């Protein structure tokens, strides 16, 4: 492993320091009846990336590199859900309400689970996060430090919300960040395109972006 072909220039991958973070590939964002759909979004856009996310995860597993999963969710008593978050967005179902897949975005509920095709395997870390960013109010920073990780490849949803927020948090904490373009998606194609452009602008101001094929070739 060495360089991964990327934009705006090659990503200097270090095998001992690299992990994959798969953000919020949960039923609540990808299936009808969940939180994403309740906000009025076309969740079919999210399911289309599943094959690319799956082969990226498999590539990291095959290379013996860590795969870390995140889930946006809250405690059943909603004590980690600020009213400002619960009240916003005018969804038909609010976080904590009972929907067709159980209580929306609540830890342990069926709709909160990672979709079955991308389920974590034994030994993989799963971070439950109450915010859009995966570092806020979670153990992610300590987990990465313990593993000696300082380079992160990102996949998951949505590109401009939880993925970009987490990349920005990671960038400020000193991690080198690479976004896998076909393994992330937004409900809004123009937002995905804009997020990719702004991440890699100004000489990788937030990080790099790369195609899944080039990442898999680089870590093989
Ligand atoms: N609504 C939306 O685009 N995203 C979220 O609420 N969460 C994540 O991005 N995971």
Automatic annotation (TrEMBL):
User: Coiled coil located at which positions?
Assistant: none
Q: Which UniProt keywords apply?
A: Hydrolase
Tell me the ranges covered by the Isochorismatase-like domain, including all copies: 19-207
GO MF terms listed in the record are: hydrolase activity
Q: Say which domain of life the source belongs to.
A: Bacteria
Q: Which SUPFAM superfamilies match?
A: Isochorismatase-like hydrolases
Record keyword Hydrolase present: yes
> Gene3D superfamilies under this entry?
Isochorismatase-like
> Which PANTHER family does the UniProt entry name for this protein?
FAMILY HYDROLASE, PUTATIVE (AFU_ORTHOLOGUE AFUA_2G08700)-RELATED (PTHR43540:SF9), PEROXYUREIDOACRYLATE/UREIDOACRYLATE AMIDOHYDROLASE-RELATED (PTHR43540)
Query: What is the protein name given in its UniProt record?
Result: Isochorismatase hydrolase
Origin species: Neorhizobium galegae bv. orientalis str. HAMBI 540
């Amino acid at each position: 492993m060495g360089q991964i072909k990327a934009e705006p220039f090659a990503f200097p991958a270090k095998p001992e320091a690299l992990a994959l973070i798969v953000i919020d590939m949960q039923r609540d964002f990808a299936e009808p009846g969940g939180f994403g759909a309740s906000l009025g979004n076309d969740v079919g856009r999210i399911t289309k990336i599943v094959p690319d996310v799956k082969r990226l995860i498999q590539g990291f597993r095959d290379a013996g590199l860590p795969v870390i999963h995140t889930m946006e969710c809250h405690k059943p008593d909603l004590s980690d859900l600020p009213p400002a978050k619960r009240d916003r967005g005018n969804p038909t179902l609010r976080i904590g309400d009972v929907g067709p897949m159980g209580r929306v975005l609540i830890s342990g509920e069926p709709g909160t689970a990672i979709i079955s095709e991308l389920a974590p395997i034994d030994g993989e870390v799963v971070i439950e996060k109450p915010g859009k960013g995966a570092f806020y109010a979670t153990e992610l920073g300590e987990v990465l430090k313990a593993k000696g990780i300082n380079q992160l490849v990102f996949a998951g949803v949505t590109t401009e919300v939880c993925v970009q927020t987490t990349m920005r948090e990671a960038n400020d904490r000193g991690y080198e960040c690479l976004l896998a373009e076909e393994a992330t998606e937004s409900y809004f194609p123009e937002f995905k395109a804009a997020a990719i452009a702004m991440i890699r602008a100004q000489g990788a101001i937030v990080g790099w972006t790369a195609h899944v094929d080039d990442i898999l070739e680089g870590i093989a």
